[in-house]
Amino acid sequence: MDQTIDKRDEAGDEPGSARPALLDRVPHIPLFFLGLGVYRAWIEIVFVGSFVGFPTAQYAGHNVFDIAMIVTLFASALASKKLGVFYRKKSLHWVAGTALVVSTAGVFASMYAPELAAAIATPAAVLGGFGIALVILFWSELYSCLNPVRVALYYSASIIVAAVILYICRGFLYPWLFAAALSMPPVTLLCLALGFRSLPESELPRALGGKFSFPWKPVMLMAIYAFAYGLKESSMYAGSFGPHSAFGTLAVALAIFAGIVARGGRFDFGAIYRIALPLMVAAFLVLPSLGFLNNVAADFCVTASYTAFSILIMLILANMSYRYGISAIWLFGIERGVRALFSLLGRETETALSGFEFAGVPSEFVLNAIVIILVVAMTMILFSEKELSSRWGVTFLGGSNAEGDSVIVKKQELANRSHELAKQFGLSQREEEVLLLLAQRKTVGAIEKELFIANGTAKTHIRHIYRKLDVHSRDELIELLGLYS
After folding, report:
1. Rounded Cα–Cα distance for residues 276 and 311 (Å)
2. How far apart are CA 56 and CA 60, in angstroms?
3. H or E element in which residue 361 lies
4. What is the pTM of this model?
5. How many Cβ atoms are within 10 Å of 176's Cβ, its own excluded?
6. What is the pLDDT of residues 117-144, one digit of tens each?
7. d(CA 238, CA 298)
8. Between the N and C ends of the chain, which has fewer C-beta atoms within 10 Å?
């Protein structure tokens, strides 16, 4: 390969051209990948209850919905090895869609027949929680087929889409709102199917088997953030906007989206949790002590912090599945179950301790102090993993599926060896991603498509990698990795 490096910079600009404006650099995003935002909007309209007071809520609302979702998530994670991948199970998609449509119809029916609310409430909430848990796992499985840049770009954009849908729906009369909510489950499932169809066969999920240690560090920190979020959730309902369309949620999603567009592969994903920590400290320590714009400012900080960390946890877990072949159903089933459980515990704790005092100190200040100690302590532990490509405590433990284990071991060894070479020879994060794809014997065109970079940029990165590693061909690179005979 020609070793001459052209004048194209790392972001993929044309030689001799001025760097294009930000809007000109916004990458093409397939609209069906934003269908994740549709189910987020559905949750808030039908069960979070931020701007519609359904009669069913007083009998079985948000908590019953969450419990059904938690049970389904944990059950799916426990059965993930037996169930295998979800995207091929079309019957499961039909079951989830039907459950959500029936749940929506039941909740809205209580608006027109309040006397039926008591009978409808529990079945509607259980069906809704069951159906949405499956949809969450479907989307998690799809996003786990993508590289980190695409995950962060699509996920942050989906959060923005959800907020926009909710802003629009606030102006609807009930018949139109019902029609919109009823259409959301089929729309999100259709987008999901199109997303899987757009991926090459080699990138689709596979049931590989194998056993891994669980990445407890990021999941436990997510649990603490969810608990803190739950403590403040009641005040969010009292405001004009719900959690999924709050200004803090939208602001962080916009900031991360703009950062990825502007920086591309050079975006520092570690900045996400460096943003999340001070925002959470501000919400629970600084603002309560000042008392200025307490609820409004604190709610902004909590929703912004929680959203930032939820984007990071999606990146971490999706990247583990992408790099090592770990089951996305297992990873996300446990993580989302833990998150929903701790959010529920936060809401119940806030309700139970409201108005209580401990030795003359209001319960709110005691809880704030506990939350801050836990958040800071766990974030310091998380800081020990400085890169998105770190293992985060994951280790392959073997398993009973010989073929699956062989594939997993090879993927893990390849990812680990690429990471070691990247650190040893000073490769950038983007160059490490290109190195891993080269080691997987992917073409230059496939690398450019997967990493979402401009034409020709992959060749520039490959030349940089070859120069730093002092190799001159892919065969020499494979030999240096030492994983193939």
Report:
1. 10
2. 6
3. strand 361-362
4. 0.78
5. 11
6. 999 999 999 999 999 999 999 999 999 9
7. 13
8. C
